[in-house]
Hints:
Layout: H1 2-27, E1 54-60, H2 67-79, E2 84-93, H3 111-124, E3 127-136, H4 153-173, E4 178-183, H5 192-205, E5 209-214, E6 231-234, H6 247-268, E7 272-277, H7 300-313, E8 322-327, H8 349-358
Parallel strand pairs: 1-2, 1-8, 2-3, 3-4, 4-5, 5-6, 6-7, 7-8
Amino acid sequence: MKNVWLKLIIGWGLLFGLLLALILLGMGRTPRAPRRKLPPPSPLKFPLTHLPAIRGLCMSLDNPGGYVTYRRALHRLHGVGCRWVNIVINARQKTINSQRMAFGKAATLSPPQIRKILLYAHRLGMHTMLMPIVLLDHATGDQWRGLIKPSNWPAWFASYRRYIVTVAGWAQRCHVAIFSVGSELLSTEKFTGQWDRLIAAVRRVYHGKLTYSANWDHYAYVGFWNKLDYIGMNAYYRLARHNQPPVQNVLARWMPIKAKIRRFSQAIGRPVLITEIGWDNLQNTLRKPWDYVGAGAIDPQVQLTAYEAFVRAWRNLPPKQFVGAFIWEWYPGSKPTDYGTYSLQGEPALNLVEHWISGR
């Protein structure tokens, strides 16, 4: 009898030990995020007609090891009818007070690879825009490129001019259709003479269309639009006060914004090109579309509402006032479960955007 009880005690002890080990192992693992089941693509409820001529996507070459990935992404976009792509590259300066910038090997493709990507897009039959930007290596608080303030402005502009003229030369050799001389450099825009000099230098090496990407709340302060072909701007307007507005409400918010932009275009005598516009997959994206580190739940329906309102609002406009837009952004490898992504792979809005881009 003693042997039976001893065997039972040993057996229960081993079972308890096994269960305890499994629990402890499980505690050390990162819990797997729940999978989000995506709804099937919705049929379009309205015709996509009278669209602007330029309809494309932005792709930022910020992965130094991503050359093959970017080629595959271009091939995939071409396959769904995308004929315009805005290629974004960067040079970096250390802080907002730095006077010089340079290409960072750890933050972008190499110059030869950038040129190969542009030429590959051209061989596919795609039109390209090239938009060089400035990024900061070290930023604190709300610091970003719009607040650059070097102690020596002429030295900063000399460095920036070398960067932009160099890249403009690549644009000429790689059949780039549109070149941006800058992006979101708000604190520099008051130096109109420096910008005039830079644009003249670019014109000597590049013979396509020129623009500058202004902030949506600052384009009226730019004093050199008459030296460029397009009034370029990003368009991260706040279009809602609540997280889940109906499409008609978002459309209504677009109307006064669009009217103001059209009046500005008419006054300057240049058409508008939206160089960046997009919404992430978070619930508050219509309230704060500029907030790329936003918070809140993933809600693909709000993103779909944003794109439906956009394509309906910005159609049937005269090309003398509006030539088109680039969606921010196409990020190779993005998934719909990625928190806060602007890229549309797997999102319900992708169906709509592909129809808008291809025009079919």
